[in-house]
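Check out one such.
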Amino acid sequence: MEGGVALDTLELARRIVEVIADKKGEDVLLLDIREVSILADYFVIGSTTSERQARAIIEDIKRETRQSFDIRPLHVEGEPATGWVLMDYGGVVVHLFAPEMRAYYDLEGLWREGRIVVRML
């Protein structure tokens, strides 16, 4: 992968982390998985405290990525009511969880070989 492309996905991932933090998402993690997976370059994982908050974060991520990067998610899977929403931006995959679902699926444990870039508690 060329340096410019990797830098762009990192910039996108960092901006998504900022959006989640701005909307008071909790325990936000930016994980570099380039060395351990072909699925994506980065995972952004965050917890939400309510369906309403999750919906607001999802809409803000969509708006910000469209305005700042002129991109839309390739796919969105799940609903806030289920406790897990996945937003696929190709090189960046966003996982928003209700706390109990995050603990159950333990993506941090599953992808522990990835490198933590940012963690905001």
Summary: The first strand starts at residue 26 and ends at 32. Strands lie at 26-32, 42-47, 75-77, 84-88, 92-97, 115-120.
